[in-house]
Amino acid sequence: WQEAERKCTEVLMDIEKECVKALFRRGQCNVQLGNHEQARTDLMRAAELDTSIKADVEREMKLVEAMQREVDRVEKPEAQRIVGQFLKEADQRSSKEPVKKKESEREAALGPHPMLGALKAQEAAAGDAIDNDTWCRQREAIYNHFLPKGPPVDD
Q: Is the pLDDT of residue 103 over 60?
């Protein structure tokens, strides 16, 4: 089966990449070799190119589906074990109290950013005494003060 699969691949690679017969035969070889995913791909492509072989493709696809069910049956316990571990770890993490941070890491290391102090001072000084446009212009001036100077940098 391996030699036949190799010959079909040679035909598809070297002579005609959409040769229905080579695709169908390679699909059959892959069924016998246990390569169900490659078999499915080849058989479906052969059926797309030539609808007259639909019955033959369906017969082979039943074998591919049976192979897939067997693989699923064998791999199911391992998959359940892995998913169970993830769920167990998630349950352990979700039952713990969230870590509360008093300050961000930056504030803890460097202290609060000077812009925050300027914004708070502007809020305290403004109160209700100024209109919205003036308040927005003052905010814009504060933001612009802390932006880097110079020409914009192209990415």
A: no
